[in-house]
Amino acid sequence: MTDFTQIDRYIADHLDQSLDELGLLVAQPSVAAQNWGLVECAALVKDMLGKRGFQVQIQSTAGAPVVFAEYLLPPGSPGADKTLLIYNHYDVQPPEPLELWDSPPFEPSLRDGKLYGRGVSDDKGHLVSRLHAIDAIQAVDGGLPCNIKFIIEGEEEVSSINLKQYIHEHAEQLAADVCIWEFGGVDHREVPIQYLGLRGICYVELSVETASSDVHSGLGGSIFPNAAWRLVWALNTLKGPDERIRIPGYYDDVDPPSARDRELMAQLPEVADEYKTRYGVSSFLKGLTGGTALHIAEVFEPTCTICGLTSGYQGPGSKTVLPARASAKVDFRLVPHQTPERVLRLLRAHLDSEGFSDVQITFLGGEPSGRTDPADPFVQLVVETAEPVYGVPMQVVPLTGGSGPNHPFIEVLKVPVVAAGIGYPGTKAHAPNENIRVDLYEKGARHIARIIKGFASQL
Amino acid sequence: MTDFTQIDRYIADHLDQSLDELGLLVAQPSVAAQNWGLVECAALVKDMLGKRGFQVQIQSTAGAPVVFAEYLLPPGSPGADKTLLIYNHYDVQPPEPLELWDSPPFEPSLRDGKLYGRGVSDDKGHLVSRLHAIDAIQAVDGGLPCNIKFIIEGEEEVSSINLKQYIHEHAEQLAADVCIWEFGGVDHREVPIQYLGLRGICYVELSVETASSDVHSGLGGSIFPNAAWRLVWALNTLKGPDERIRIPGYYDDVDPPSARDRELMAQLPEVADEYKTRYGVSSFLKGLTGGTALHIAEVFEPTCTICGLTSGYQGPGSKTVLPARASAKVDFRLVPHQTPERVLRLLRAHLDSEGFSDVQITFLGGEPSGRTDPADPFVQLVVETAEPVYGVPMQVVPLTGGSGPNHPFIEVLKVPVVAAGIGYPGTKAHAPNENIRVDLYEKGARHIARIIKGFASQL
């Protein structure tokens, strides 16, 4: 076994420095949905990698640029035949609602062992903790033990709309043996979790326009079509209170969990009480109360979620107006074998057949689900190297509820994709007061250092 | 017949001056829904009446102050036994959406014979045109021929939430023989219209909270309740695409139009094409195509209108969030004999019985419908004095679609309430680019002068 005493000491001794660097990155807003600060943030990321000896390129796409970086050992030297690819993203979610933040989202704030700020967890903290691990290896060993490539995109929070094409076009440049995914972390028991699959997603905006301008509700209420009502009725045809999605054919290509999937899911701890406390919900849908059934429903069932509703007057008090326009953001989470293309086709046909041809569908992004084989040796390495850091065995989860563009990594680059990172349940990703725990930031860096060195020496 | 040559000349000669005064009033924002500028606007109105010899008081309510003004003739002098009450309001609708205005809403702009600005029509233009008529009578006759009282409230656009109580408490002070309502005007044929009744209203906000904070949609979509879905399903139980309101008992106390009502409605001109052009709608609800059926449906049927929808992420692009909160603004227009109190009670019972006890109802204001008898002599006076001004007979409409607090005027103060004013179909009240036509502003003042003098000399 390699001795990690010196590497761990370097990581601990230089922790404040690394958090300062993370703070600089968080202070640069980079909201993909609002096209805010992306180019500036990409430039900052380029500098951070460049000063660690990586060759860095900012590569354009149809949307936000991708930062590609590589550290290649001289051909023939030990480790030069092994390449580890790391995927991260520099974009973040919108900070709204601003009034619910205890400190401004783009002014990183360290309080009680936590660092707060938009993107500090999702995903800038993961990226900088990995750089911290690389710093430690370079400082202690005088260099890196294998080739390392970074692909850091700027549109993950808007469904990675251009990444699939980027990967197809740059498959050779990205060639690698294994891949570390953008996230990872511990659950509410402090047990590190290995997520081996992501759900897919199909994100749409549904919109209706019934008139050229809003009308006084006293005039039009009885005789004019109302865009808000049209939207409500159209949405109501998609899903009812029984939570069954009513689009004909929607469930046809759903791949149910395998026996091995169920076995792994059954090993997960009870989360019911913890979810209720954390999110302030009083009960779960479909009569679920907890246990393996809750775990399986959480990830193996496709969803139809209203993410936002917009119509008419939304200010304080009353305004008597009949809205000419209404729209909803709707996110379908896809399980293995469902595709965004098919969901779009079924959705259009369904709305038409229900009499809602006036409801427009705007596709805002999507990707299929992707999964890595639990038996892959790299998965085993990541699981084994976690225990000395976290003090407990890593738990393997076959599929998680979130989405991400792992499908082209697995299917085009043909790499196993693993999770390792600094996350924890209270991180509030996508919500106000997003934060990371400093202790887990340190552990995450130590784990990454072990993965890199373990991969380089793996047969 | 009184000769109005001199009065009409005064009104024409001093038109610019009056419009300048209106411009000053419009430049003072006074948005009741946003509690913006109300006290400042009331003070401005007080000054305008004071300099015309009215005794003016600013009287407080639980909300925005009421401006009360009276011009009383010495007891025993001719006309001192007759009192005309004028009702107006100094508050305006919110100016949003700002980007759709061609000139800023609170910077009055005169273009092509029209004056633009928020409130220029609803209701500040009506008020100032009446002052202009009063100026003309005073200038020509050296005084007013009867007592005149003004009640000018500041919460009409938020359902006059405190006016009913104010009228009850100040009934003696407000004592009068007749009342001129806040609005009036011509239709698309340039025919002046006499509206003798208003629908009532019950305006509520429906809100749902399903968790203490928004949740990442990838996590919660399959297992957590979603406030936006709860709201959609609850709204869907209120009304379906057949436009029938599904609240049990809702139609029980609806008073259908009388034979005389139908007779008057049948005299109204066709509006179908004009509505389609003006509002950019392609068809009407319930298979209506026009004619008397459209007129009757427009005002004699109670409504349930979604005025606004709010939930989750509403910005550009996508945000994968499961909303913890959702709300809708909903306006019920009431026909004679329906009351807001009963609608609230039925709505609560209905939501509970449909499984939506989690949907909160916040009452944002309301009032019953109120109607004046078409046979009242003051109504006849207003109709007769319109023809010399407009060149065509005034048309009497028994009920109109809008709402207002006429019920306590009719039921508590026991006055007939008539409409006379400067409105026209293109006025865009409650919408961007609200405007008045200068020619109608002048005609409105001429008509008011005739009503005042006619009322004073009426037996």
Structural overview:
Two copies of one chain form a homodimer. The first copy, chain A, has 459 residues and is an alpha/beta fold. The first copy, chain A, folds into two domains: 278 residues, Aminopeptidase, CATH 3.40.630.10; 122 residues, Alpha-Beta Plaits (2-Layer Sandwich), CATH 3.30.70.360. Chain A is built from 14 helices and 20 strands. Chain A has a six-stranded mixed sheet with strand order 1-2-6-3-7-19. In chain A, strands 10, 12, 14, 15, 16 and 18 form a six-stranded mixed sheet that branches. A three-stranded antiparallel sheet of chain A has the order 4-5-20. In chain A, strand 1 and strand 2 form a beta hairpin. In chain A, helix 1 runs antiparallel to helix 14. The longest helix of chain A has 20 residues. The two termini of chain A are 14 Å apart. In chain A, 56% of the residues are buried. Chains A and B meet through strand 10, strand 11, helix 6, helix 7 and helix 10 of A and strand 10, strand 11, helix 6, helix 7 and helix 10 of B.
Structure, briefly:
The structure is a homodimer of 459-residue chains. Chain A has 459 residues and is an alpha/beta fold. Chain A has helices spanning 5-13, 15-26, 38-50, 124-141, 163-169, 217-220, 227-238, 259-266, 272-279, 291-300, 340-353, 377-390, 406-413, 438-457, and strands at residues 55-59, 66-71, 83-89, 109-111, 114-116, 147-153, 178-180, 185-186, 192-195, 197-209, 215-216, 305-312, 321-322, 325-334, 360-367, 370-371, 395-397, 400-403, 417-418, 435-437.
